[in-house]
Amino acid sequence: MFKSKNKSKIYLSPPHLSGNEMQYIQEAINTNWIAPLGPNVDAFENEIARYVGATEAVAVSSGTAAIHLALSLLDVKKGDTVFCSTLTFVASANPILYQGAEPVFIDSEPETWNMSPEALETAFREADYLGKLPKAVIVVNLYGQSAKMDEILSICNHYDVPIIEDAAESLGSSYKEKPSGSFGKFGVFSFNGNKIITTSGGGMLVSDDAVAIKKARFLATQSRDQAPHYQHSEIGYNYRMSNILAGIGRGQLKVLEERVMAKRIIFSKYYQALSHIRGIHFMPELENTRSNRWLTTLIIDEEAAGVSSSDLLQYLAEENIEARPVWKPLHLQPLFDGAKYYHHQDRDVAEQLFTNGLCLPSGSNISVEEMTRVVECLKRALKPKVYTIHPIGINEVQNNDREKYI
Ligand SMILES: *Cc1c(COP(=O)(O)O)cnc(C)c1O
């Protein structure tokens, strides 16, 4: 048994402070603007809006809250349906349930791993035929890669249904040089601890619709009417971001471009070290897009590689290395049992990606030594089988190394 529990843990995507954060936090403390709201919140909203080229932004307590507000602004309610990418984190679709609406899941396509325009078109045609178009389409940009926005926009515009772009994982990415998160009626970002930049927890809703963002601010602050006393005429939420956390966000935003560069370098190092191995296929980058490569992700063809993605997860875990499977498609989640789902052509792409996918440690602060440990571990596990010529035929020699390794 090869034990390595004494080796330090390598995390999937831990927070990475820039050193700029304290200045903004200190300012907040010195001026007693620690909560709620305050100048850091206003500035962070303006800075994100400017960065993504949106006219308006509202800082909130999480990416999930931002999606919830977007659905609420689009008047999604009981009896409505919302189309949503199936290959994503549950947070993309949970707010559909908060509103009592029904999600309909759309499969991925192989070039971006994101929403298949063909499956989307089929879903729309059927919904149109039944006279029940969705109230919104939630399009996710997985692991930093933009979905095929031209095709998706053209379909949604044809049916006049607004897009909520879940860019929680893709801040800093672009599609045809236009920033990720700026394509839909609403764009959503997350500053959760594992995202490319973090406020320790937080989110942002962006839009060019000033009236909608003003309403979002109102809803996120308990829907307090203009009155000298506390008066409320509609349901509200406590979703605003604190001035301290916005300070962390401002410090982080300053180094976003560096973080994207670091993540892209991490991807290319993994690619150089492993892409030649049989059965290994890295997540593609669609032409004319730039992914922030939030997580380096690949699929393993078990037959060609001789090991499965779950085997590799196991090997990595033994080495105290945190890797993850690709998101489990939402149409396969018990939570969404019975939800409608449209697959890509005659395949289930998202399901295949889930079965064979693997996310590698991709923290922008990962060291060369740590990357080497990950690569060496994978290389040992993926060592090609050795074949020997036997008098009566070709026999496969078991890879003993691999057994020793676990
Ligand atoms: C992280 C994430 C969210 C939710 O963001 P939180 O800030 O954690 O609420 C939503 N969608 C996707 C695709 C995510 O990865």
Task: Describe this structure as you would to a colleague.
The chain is of the alpha/beta class. 48% of the residues are buried. Helices cover 36% and strands 16% of the residues. It has two domains: 21-254, Type I PLP-dependent aspartate aminotransferase-like (Major domain) (Aspartate Aminotransferase, domain 2, 3-Layer(aba) Sandwich); 257-404, Aspartate Aminotransferase, domain 1. Pyridoxal-5'-phosphate (PLP) is lined by residues 62-64, 88-89, 91-92, 140, 166, 168-169, 190, 192, 203.
Name the shape in a single word.
globular
Q: Main β-sheet: number of strands, strand sense, barrel status?
A: 8 strands, mixed
Radius of gyration computed on alpha carbons: 23 Å
**Average pLDDT, to the nearest integer?**
92
Task: Label the CATH architecture of the largest domain.
Answer: 3-Layer(aba) Sandwich
Secondary structure elements and pairings:
Blueprint: H1 21-30, H2 39-52, E1 56-60, H3 63-73, E2 81-85, H4 94-98, E3 102-106, H5 117-129, E4 136-140, H6 149-158, E5 163-166, E6 174-175, E7 178-179, E8 186-190, E9 203-207, H7 210-220, H8 243-253, H9 256-274, E10 280-282, E11 289-290, E12 296-300, H10 302-305, H11 309-318, E13 340-342, H12 349-356, E14 357-360, H13 368-382, E15 386-390, E16 393-397, H14 400-405
Parallel strand pairs: 2-3, 2-4, 3-13, 4-5, 5-8
Antiparallel strand pairs: 1-9, 6-7, 6-11, 8-9, 10-12, 12-14, 15-16
Helix pairs in contact: 1-8, 2-8, 9-13, 11-13
The chain binds pyridoxal-5'-phosphate (PLP).
